[in-house]
Amino acid sequence: MTRKVTFDVDHIGGGDDPWGGYRQGFEATTTLNLADFDIDMSQFPEPMHSVDLYVVLEGIRQ
Questions:
Q1: Strand bridging mode 50-60 / 22-33
Q2: What is the pTM (predicted TM-score) of this model?
Q3: Are 40 and 52 spatial neighbours (Cβ–Cβ below 8 Å)?
Q4: Mean pLDDT in order along the chain per 10 residues (62 residues)
Q5: Residue 8 near residue 31 (C-beta atoms within 8 A)
Q6: Which residues have CB under 8 Å from 15's CB, separation 6+?
């Protein structure tokens, strides 16, 4: 199943690297409700209803 997901993004830094490149770093978070993706975790002793997603990204200017 495919759904659009919105992330809260923070810029965590950037600048020149030791190899002559220029980098930028970002981190993003969101919470996914499992029912939105037809995932049922109710059969487990401690059922989950959502998942927190944390993504870290570093990009190099080309």
A1: antiparallel
A2: 0.70
A3: no
A4: 90 95 97 92 89 96 91
A5: no
A6: 22, 23
- 11-47: buried (b, 16+ CB within 10 Å) or exposed (e) per residue? eeeeeeeeeeeeeeebeeeeeeeeeeeeeeeeeeeee
Radius of gyration of the chain (CA): 17
Contact residues for 43 (Cβ-Cβ < 8 A; gap 6+): none
Six-digit token pair at 56? Answer: 């870290």
Q: Give the DSSP letter string of 8-20.
A: EEEEEEEEE-TTS
Distance of CA 23 to the CA centre of its chain: 19
d(CA 20, CA 51): 39
Q: Which amino acid is at 60?
A: I
